[in-house]
Amino acid sequence: MSEPSLTQVAQAIDHTLLKPEATHADVEALVAEAVELGTYSVCVSPSMLPVTVPEGSDLKVAVVCGFPSGKHTSAVKAAEAAESVAHGADEIDMVIDIGAAKEGRFDAVEADIAAVRAAAPAPTVLKVIIESAALTDEEIVGACRAAAAAGADFVKTSTGFHPSGGATEHAVRLMAQTVPDLQVKASGGVRTLEQARTMLAAGATRLGVSGSRALLGSGDQPASGGY
């Protein structure tokens, strides 16, 4: 199988800006850059909504939920997701309660995800951030199965904010194998074209990237223009 082209990599990217100090002007610049680079979406904090997408563009808007700790109650996460959808979000990237997964309480993880799914039903895309670097393989499997049972569309490796690290090829491959009916988003530390292609080869279908221009220009071909 041939490796994905720059255009194909770009089309898998959620162009991300989640810094606490981000301004609306920063988000406007993010959108303009995403359109220029041809990324799939922009991913922003809920307070940045609504996001204006240029007319004629098919750029999607993803918004985080329960971010970055996941320690919000399910009711708060559900309300946050519903408000984000009402303000134009196409996709919701929610964080599970990592501690519940560490304790093996996967029924609680499933219920948490199901609450957000109910608040943001299809066609809204629901991605579930499991913070894979903080979990054992067994915990990754349990969290992924909970996401599938709750009706999620994606499992996602990382917030990019956890000290344990971000996406790894091993975690992406394990996640893809565990829930083959769901898609996988690799995020956290995907900074080079080589890393992006490695994640896609391991089974990721989406990439969370803040430095998209640098990533797309990091290969041996010129780009068209740490999260």
From TrEMBL:
Gene name per UniProt: deoC
Compartment list: Cytoplasm
Keyword Cytoplasm carried by entry: yes
Pfam families per UniProt: DeoC
InterPro entries, sorted: Aldolase_TIM, DeoC, DeoC/FbaB/LacD_aldolase, DeoC_typeI
Function: Catalyzes a reversible aldol reaction between acetaldehyde and D-glyceraldehyde 3-phosphate to generate 2-deoxy-D-ribose 5-phosphate.
Catalytic activity: 2-deoxy-D-ribose 5-phosphate = D-glyceraldehyde 3-phosphate + acetaldehyde
EC number: 4.1.2.4
UniProt record, GO biological process: 2-deoxyribose 1-phosphate catabolic process; carbohydrate catabolic process; deoxyribonucleotide catabolic process
Pathway linked to the protein: Carbohydrate degradation; 2-deoxy-D-ribose 1-phosphate degradation; D-glyceraldehyde 3-phosphate and acetaldehyde from 2-deoxy-alpha-D-ribose 1-phosphate: step 2/2
Official protein name in the record: Deoxyribose-phosphate aldolase
Gene Ontology terms for molecular function: deoxyribose-phosphate aldolase activity
Listed NCBIfam families: deoC
Catalytic residue list: 93, 156, 185
UniProt entry keywords in alphabetical sequence: Cytoplasm, Lyase, Schiff base
EC top class named in words: lyase
Family per similarity comment: Belongs to the DeoC/FbaB aldolase family. DeoC type 1 subfamily.
Keyword check for Cytoplasm: yes
Species the sequence originates in: Nocardioides marmotae
GO CC terms: cytoplasm
